[in-house]
Design goal:
Layout: H1 3-13, H2 22-40, E1 44-47, E2 66-71, E3 76-81, H3 90-105, E4 116-121, H4 128-136, E5 140-142, H5 149-152, H6 169-177, H7 182-185, E6 187-188, E7 194-195, H8 202-224, H9 229-238
Parallel strand pairs: 3-4, 4-5
Antiparallel strand pairs: 1-2, 2-3, 6-7
């Protein structure tokens, strides 16, 4: 399974009605994702607090809880599943970014060769400020109202049977920038340190986020034109489970 397809399927799963509250809702969302990955035969390892990531403890030696490490065919995904109703609290994404940074900084010269991409989200909604923060750090956000940027940029994988209606190459490149491997955000150096590339101007980030909104709306329109198309997508991912 490719990273783009994983983002698409996680987006579809986020539309399921979990029919629960509090910690039970979070546990049910995590089980939903775990069951989906098990059906697809995707290699997954949980990373409970205190365990190692890629064989290393965190730089600070602090234990961190991370929901999963998933092996896609073209990337390694470090993921956090959240089942919030309404807005996603900003501290959840800040904690995830800080915890993963702590692990990545401890890898030094043993950083994986394959792209490592961070994914965060679920049924909750992200504010524009949270989306900007995720874009700065290359984190993929999954939320039910907006198609993920890797899907919009993914060509035929994201636009089945309607590729002519999808983004042109220039827009796809801009959309792809929103989600970047950690190796491009914390660039390993020969001396064991890391280089952080210069931050993009806020106006540029805002323009790309608006581009995502535009193409997300176009994809919704294209899907809605085909009766039952979205329901068929969800059925493909989760079988007979009911969509929200």
């Amino acid at each position: 399974m490719t990273f783009t397809l994983f983002c698409l399927d996680l987006f579809l799963l986020a539309h399921l009605d979990l029919r629960s509250k509090g910690s039970e809702r979070g546990e049910r969302w995590e089980r939903t994702v775990e069951e989906y990955l098990a059906r697809r035969g995707v290699p997954v390892s949980a990373i409970p607090g205190g365990c190692r990531l890629f064989g290393h403890i965190s730089l600070s030696s602090l234990p961190h809880q991370i929901d999963g490490c998933i092996g896609c065919s073209d990337a390694i995904v470090i993921a956090e599943w959240k089942a919030h109703r309404g807005a996603i609290p900003k501290n959840e994404l800040l904690r995830f970014k800080a915890a993963t940074d702590d692990y990545f900084l401890g890898l030094v010269t043993d950083f994986p060769k394959r792209p490592v991409i961070r994914v965060f989200g679920g049924p909750g909604r992200a504010s524009d400020a949270l989306r900007t923060y995720a874009a700065i750090h290359g984190i993929a956000l999954i939320e039910p109202d907006r198609w993920p940027s890797p899907v919009l940029a993914g060509g035929q994988c994201g636009w089945p049977d309607m590729s002519s209606e999808g983004p042109a190459l220039e827009d796809r490149r801009a959309l792809a920038w929103l989600v970047r491997p950690v190796q491009q955000v914390l660039v390993p150096q020969p001396d064991g340190g890391f280089r952080i590339p210069p931050a993009q101007m806020p106006a540029r980030i805002s323009a790309v986020l608006r581009l995502q909104d535009y193409w997300s709306d176009r994809l919704w329109e294209a899907v809605d034109m085909k009766t039952g198309a979205f329901e068929s997508m969800i059925t493909r991912v989760c079988g007979s489970r009911d969509a929200a």
